[in-house]
């Protein structure tokens, strides 16, 4: 029976895929990758492109960021995948970072549960783990907690010491205000592992850059 493989391709560096991810991509007959903007590039696909064998069917599916169309688009993508699986072809669904961290894959899997196809998930290096390595900074240590949150929740920080803030784009000012108010030391990382990779700690430079693919690692004593 055909299998759907959910594959984490890491942060965007084609050397940061696991061996298992590469081998699975190489042998799937169909590769599906998400993009955030209709007709736009898929970072996951660009990251994995060199591992896709000639003759593979490659499709980019649009997954809008807003909540409104998300479920419908996930269903559309799933119907496409289901049709390929019914033909007996294995499908690789690529996601940036890890498939189970803020990923379109999770939405899509809701539709997979009821059908009889096999699903296998291959983990990937998350963007924040890659960012921590890039800046040589500890994410969490000892018996502390690490909180990973989207920028929209930054006002809910209470007594956390180690945090990762994802989806910073368009929320930069508010995030930096809160972090500074609460005495955090922070580093902003954008396009980790990709062309244009940037590391910033200066507030004004962060506000000037405002990159879509960005996150912040922060900690305090
Ligand atoms: C939809 S989430 C995907 C997270 C991904 N599944 C992971 O495991 O890292 C997109 C967010 O991940 C972060 N991100 C993904 N790739 C990144 C990169 N190469 N550099 C910096 N941040 C990245 C950004 O915060 C971005 O807004």
From TrEMBL:
> Which CDD domains does this chain map to?
Precorrin_2_C20_MT (cd11645)
What EC numbers are recorded for this enzyme? Answer: 2.1.1.151
Q: Which SUPFAM superfamilies match?
A: Tetrapyrrole methylase
* Gene Ontology molecular function: cobalt-factor II C20-methyltransferase activity; precorrin-2 C20-methyltransferase activity
Question: Which residues are in the Tetrapyrrole methylase domain?
Answer: 3-201
What EC class is this?
A: transferase
Choose any GO biological process term that the UniProt entry carries and state it: cobalamin biosynthetic process
Reactions that this protein is recorded to catalyse: Co-precorrin-2 + S-adenosyl-L-methionine = Co-precorrin-3 + S-adenosyl-L-homocysteine + H(+)
- Which pathway does it take part in? Cofactor biosynthesis; adenosylcobalamin biosynthesis
Q: In which family does this protein belong, per the annotation?
A: Belongs to the precorrin methyltransferase family.
Q: Spell out the subunit comment.
A: Homodimer.
Entry protein name: Cobalt-precorrin-2 C(20)-methyltransferase
């Amino acid at each position: 029976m055909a299998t759907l493989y959910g594959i984490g391709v890491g942060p965007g560096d084609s050397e940061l895929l696991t061996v298992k991810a590469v081998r699975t991509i190489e042998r799937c007959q169909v590769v599906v990758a998400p993009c955030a903007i209709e007709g736009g590039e898929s970072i996951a696909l660009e990251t994995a492109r060199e591992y896709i064998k000639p003759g593979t069917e490659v499709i980019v599916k649009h997954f809008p960021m807003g909540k409104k169309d998300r479920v419908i688009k996930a269903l559309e993508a799933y119907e496409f995948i289901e049709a390929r699986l019914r033909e007996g072809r294995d499908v690789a669904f690529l996601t940036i970072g890890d498939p189970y961290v803020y990923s379109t894959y999770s939405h899509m899997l809701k539709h997979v549960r009821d059908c009889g196809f096999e699903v296998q998930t291959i983990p990937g290096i998350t963007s924040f783990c890659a960012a921590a390595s890039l800046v040589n900074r500890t994410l969490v240590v000892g018996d502390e907690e690490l909180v990973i949150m989207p920028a929209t929740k930054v006002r809910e920080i209470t007594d956390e010491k180690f945090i990762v803030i994802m989806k910073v784009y368009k929320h930069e000012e508010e995030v930096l205000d809160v972090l500074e108010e609460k005495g955090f030391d922070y580093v902003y990382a954008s396009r980790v592992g990709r062309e244009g990779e940037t590391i910033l700690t200066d507030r004004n430079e962060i506000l000037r850059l405002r990159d879509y693919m960005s996150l912040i690692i922060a900690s305090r004593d």
